[in-house]
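Example with several molecule types.
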Amino acid sequence: MIKAGTAHWLLHNVKNRGFTAWLLAVALTLFYLILYFTEWLTPAARAVGLDGKWTLYGLLYTVAIVWGGIHVIRKYRHNRYQVVRTSVVIAVQVSFAFSIPQLLKFFHQPEYYFSYLWPLKLDYLTPGYIFSLPLPFILYSFLGSLLMVPVLAALFGKRWYCSWICGCGGLANTFGEPWRHLSDKSSQSWKIEKVAIHTALATSLLLTALLFITWGAGKSNPAVARFTYGFQSFYGLMVSSMLAGVAGVGLYPLGGTRIWCRFFCPMAALLGLVQKFGRYRIRVKENMCISCGLCSKYCEMGIDVRSYAQANQSFTRASCVGCGLCAEVCPRGVLRLENVRVRAPQEMSLIQISPMPPVRQAG
Amino acid sequence: MHYVIIGNGVAGITAAFALRKRAGRARISVVSGESEYFFSRTALMYAYLDKMNLRDLEPFERKVYQKQRIELRHGWVEDLDANRRVLRLKDGAEIPYDRLLLATGSVPNRPDWPGLAGLAEGVVHFVSLQHLAECERLTPTTRKAVVVGGGLIGVELVECLVHHGVEVDFLVRENWYWPMALAPEEGELIAQHLRHHGVRLHLQDEVARVESGSDGRVATVQTRQGKSLPCEMLGICIGVRPAVDWLRGVSTPPALGRGIQVDRGFRTSLPDVWAAGDCAEFQRADGAPFVEQIWYAAKRQGELAARAMLGDAVRYEPPLFFNSAKFFEIEYTTVGATTRLPDTARSFFHRWPDRDAAIRIVEENGAVTGFNMLGSRWNHTVLERWVGERRSLDEVVARLHEAQFDGEFGRVPLAGLRAAFAGREARA
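Resulting structure tokens for the full complex:
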């Protein structure tokens, strides 16, 4: 039941797909369309002393994360995991995703974002681009993407990146907090997710392979090069602009905050595959679940956490970003995020579990 | 074969799924008057608090029932004829059955306070979907409310009302909050927490008389201690009893006590009729009747009753008691016996000075027998094991960290507790 008063009604309306949510979604979408496809923001950026629209965007993005992050820390101040995690998200955005690239630019170095890695940022393993950078950046790109990312994911799950470091996740978990519950929890959406995200991963891998081939043998195969560059600009438009920006953030108030992360991010797909067979899991305390469903409701990735909790089934889902909100909202303390050495095979199951748990109690 | 279950609460639905697992092509029907689909009763408060929609309270996707071939019938059962093996619904429809499970749950206790019967409006309970609808209908016109009853449902209703800006007087008959489960110092911790949230908690007081305004709606509650509490809403949360009244007038009533009397195999006195959950009444070895009116027991019983209906030899023996709750922000986990203890039992109690958290460990004859944990998270299965293994209090305190279930970075520190324990040992 909505709390009495206009302010509460408005808040409920904007958080629950009311008409204010639609207005906001239109506004956010328009903002992204203007940002990506016009130069209208350039004069605004110049007017406040910035060198271009992308710096202005970075600044706005950082402000949104800091402002939303402070709100989130206050809201969950009793939960140290949330306080630590959100503090890291804010710190990473302010430093690695904003100040440091600006400083690098100031000192005539490449504008490099250490918090973004391939395949989220495809440029960083695009030979034509990355080999033009000084050696330390090349080393960081290759070692970061190919070594650090999977090793940390195996040890701690994808959360080390998706809910602690990544800017997309950062925005979702701070500015996007009021809409986290809008993610679709149906088993149908899970099926779509599995197809979509692995298609995205395959596409990005294919493009990266083509870029290397073109870099190595493009001169002698102009047809391949033409195809690759066409593919590259199509990917840039569809994936980086339309899916990550316009749909990813524009639809926050309608579809929740992790549409991009859940269905389209190639990095999330890769991390998810490692996570599935790594150490990370959500532990379910036996027989303590009351099926209230707060965990499912507030899962931003649309995982029906309750279906596992009420079946006494610890689990790892590839999409879980380890935000820890399911454990936070659980009124009976049933859930805990863990990194464990050995996991049971059924924890890694790829199918929906049956409504009845395996019987434990003796008659 | 047609299995019919009356009641789509956690006992009934758990039984239905358990039956489906092994019943092959048999028909399974679940009849409910309260709601079309199973919902989590324990989550009613989250709908009231606007944290969830009613649809969110449903633990299973609706298509699951189709997939599992469980037929849902929405309607109240009016008659049970065990000779003809037929149920009749309020709308006149008849449902024949081969095997029947009664899982009708509980209804709230209704006291006979003077003036209560004459009220036209303003009295609420907080157990069913219909109660929730009534609470929500009355809340916008309520500035003050009185909630009676020092148990779990009472505190949930209080939390919801406080959330909606209603001033609440909370009347508890006993000397401290919830003596059924809490020791005085634990009740005091909860009392402080409630008062911190603006709740006016009145201990050792009860309703003497209820008065209505000119519109027939509740206006004042007069208490035994002479307090006069104005209110527009009166919440009655003084426990529940098995929902069996409707069975007294049917063609073939089963044997009834407080609930539907069953043996340890969930069999009622009627042929091919079983009962499980809140409405089932068992007998202890000494002949005393008992009913288990908590979520966990209903889930357990529903599953075992299904097995009994399938022909397994089932003998229900409640496991070591455990339960959980949440009082505003304070989470509660309990295992074993923690109140009404024998004289030989002693308790180690520790309250953290810097947070709303406390634990109490009960020991009897050199072995731990119960735990009351407030304000931090514990793995009750570890605590249960320690009770089963008859571990000593010393050992349990030394190994307490093994049972902690707080989130990462959030473990409640145990150093102070252990120092206090060592100091206590030295004194003793």
